[in-house]
């Protein structure tokens, strides 16, 4: 049962990280190329009283987060490095979604400029939850790989007793 559960977590981590990566990449690029979405993003940032630099930083961070989520899918990495990359992506996603929740809760931000026109922060909280669902197995993978390597290193260093 434990091996089956572990396999299911890894499968969920793989698929969810790909979905989150494509989601973040898509919306990050759309903020650069779509005047409508870019305009909405400007209004969100300005009406939330965030600094003007948050506009460019938000766009770049979304794209970088998306790249970090999809990178392990298209480039072979050892499990511990895959887990570490996904943990960085998840940390970035959590920060972005916390800012998105903050923006949604600002009374000056009109619902018309929010995704799907939904004022309560439902979408950022769901994306945040999905990020946590990727982070937990990624953390376990990075920890188990490190523990396994520590045992191998100690085994190689120990003197041979005959």
* Tally of DSSP β-strands: 0
Portion of residues in beta strands equals under 5%
Order of helices and strands: HHHHH
Low-confidence segments, ≥5 residues, pLDDT <50? 150-162
Secondary structure category: mainly alpha
Shape: elongated
Helical coverage, percent range = over 70%
Distance between the termini: 40 Å
Helical segment count: 5
Radius of gyration: 20 Å
The largest pleated sheet is described as: none
Number of domains: 1
Mean pLDDT figure: 85
Explain what you see.
With about 160 residues, the protein is mainly alpha-helical. α1 crosses α3 (about 55-75), α3 packs antiparallel against α4 (about 80-105) and α4 (about 80-105) runs antiparallel to α5. It is about 80% helix and about 0% strand. The model is unreliable at about 150-160 (pLDDT under 50). The longest helix is centred in the last third of the chain and has 36 residues, at about 120-155. The chain has one domain (about 1-155). The chain is built from five helices and no strands. The protein has helices spanning about 1-35, 35-45, 55-75, 80-105, 120-155. The chain is elongated and about 50 Å long.
């Amino acid at each position: 049962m434990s091996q089956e559960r572990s396999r299911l977590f890894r499968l969920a981590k793989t698929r969810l990280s790909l979905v989150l990566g494509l989601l973040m990449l898509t919306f990050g690029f759309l903020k650069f190329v779509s005047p409508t979405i870019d305009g909405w993003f400007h209004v969100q940032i300005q009406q939330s009283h965030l600094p003007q630099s948050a506009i460019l930083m938000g766009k770049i961070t979304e794209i970088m987060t998306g790249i970090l989520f999809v990178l392990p899918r298209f480039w072979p990495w050892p499990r511990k490095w895959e887990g570490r990359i996904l943990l960085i992506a998840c940390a970035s996603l959590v920060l972005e979604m916390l800012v998105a929740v903050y923006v949604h809760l600002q009374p000056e931000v009109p619902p018309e400029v929010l995704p799907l026109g939904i004022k309560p922060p439902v979408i950022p909280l769901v994306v945040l939850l999905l990020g946590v669902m990727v982070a937990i197995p990624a953390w376990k993978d990075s920890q188990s790989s490190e523990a396994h390597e520590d045992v191998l290193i100690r085994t190689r260093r120990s003197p041979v007793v005959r």
